[in-house]
Design a protein that fits this description.
This protein is an alpha/beta fold. It has 14 helices and 9 strands. β5 (about 160-165), α6 and β6 (about 185-190) form a beta-alpha-beta unit. α2 crosses α12 (about 285-295) and α2 packs across α13 (about 305-315).
Length: about 325
């Protein structure tokens, strides 16, 4: 989801060596069902790159040829339906569920189950901002003019400023602000790196900031803060204007929370049944992923290094995925 910082740029350079190339793998299985490359999608946030490369390395150990393909988070479903793309390792319940459900309903895309990670994506603020907006985390505090002004910038005053994720992430933040009549202007960060660079800068200066923060990620662990408590998400909130506090608008609630899913082209299980079973078996928890994202984004390690460490330390685990 973003223009890449130096850490991610190093990661993309490493992955670019393999992107678009069929990679012969090594040794666990002498024969696989097809030598055609299995195409795994890459997006633009660190965790997804890690998840995908781990899966790719495991499949290579099983003898499969792997190709990494850069793809838009939501637009990738067109390629998964057509079979031009084969596996997507992170579809977040918070932002991708509708697109996933539409794709699986066609019968051309298959949901391969949960990754083991649980997703939160929501409006977030540092706890030092509660002094200026004491009604937080209740969302109704944001309707107060004094609270909005506390989050304002020169460009948005007297409205508050909410820094959303890149537009490609979805999330309906513009619609949410309008439906809940919040005196906030939604501004979208161009990249994941820009989003968290702004948080870093604001936090050091104790400056006002309200932004999209997600988990699993290092930011909620590194910085003291809270997610805004909007009305709880329901499917009706996104589909039925009569639901909720605004009878004329949808999205008058918070974002969904829940699993991060794995999906594939429906033909994967027929052409590469062993690979399909391996993707289904893949499982990593929030703590593991948060530690790996921290190693890349904060400690300067490359994704190649982090994935290699995980593979070395978890062979007994991932080897069961390809049996």
């Amino acid at each position: 989801m973003k223009t890449v910082n130096m850490t991610l740029r190093r990661a993309f350079i490493g992955l670019a060596v393999t992107a678009g190339l069929s990679l012969a793998a090594t040794n666990v299985q002498a024969e696989v069902e097809s030598r055609d490359p299995i195409k795994l999608t890459l997006h633009d946030w660190t965790g997804q790159l890690i998840t995908t490369q781990i899966m790719g390395e495991v499949l290579k150990k099983a003898g499969y040829n792997i190709e990494y393909v850069q793809a838009d988070y939501i637009a990738q479903f067109a390629g998964l339906k057509s079979g031009d793309l084969h596996v997507a390792m992170e579809i977040w319940e918070t932002t991708g569920r509708d697109a996933m459900d539409e794709a699986t309903a066609t019968g051309k895309v298959e949901n391969l189950g949960e990754t083991g990670m649980q997703a939160i994506e929501e409006w977030w603020y540092p706890t030092y901002m509660k002094e200026k907006c004491p009604g937080l985390p209740n969302w109704e505090a944001l309707k107060e003019a004094s609270c909005a002004e506390a989050f304002a910038t020169a460009e948005t005053a007297p409205k508050g400023r909410y820094l959303g994720g890149p537009v490609t992430w979805g999330g309906f933040d513009d619609e949410r602000a309008e439906a809940l009549d919040l005196p906030f202007e939604v501004v979208h960060a161009g990249t994941d790196a820009a989003l968290f660079a702004e948080l870093e800068s604001a936090y050091q200066r104790k400056a006002p900031v309200m932004l999209w923060v997600y988990a699993p990620h290092w930011a909620p662990a590194k910085y003291e803060g809270e997610w805004v408590e909007f009305p709880a998400y329901t499917k009706e909130c996104y589909e039925d204007p009569s639901w909720g506090s605004n009878p004329n608008e949808t999205y008058d609630c918070g974002k969904p929370r829940g699993p991060i899913w794995k999906v594939s082209w429906a033909g994967l299980k027929d052409k590469w049944p062993g690979a399909s079973n391996a993707v289904k078996a893949f499982n990593i928890n929030n703590g593991e992923m948060g530690a790996m994202i921290t190693a890349v984004d904060l400690e300067g390690k490359s994704i190649d290094e982090v994935v290699a460490d995980w593979m070395a330390n978890n062979e007994a685990r991932w080897s069961t995925w390809i049996k």
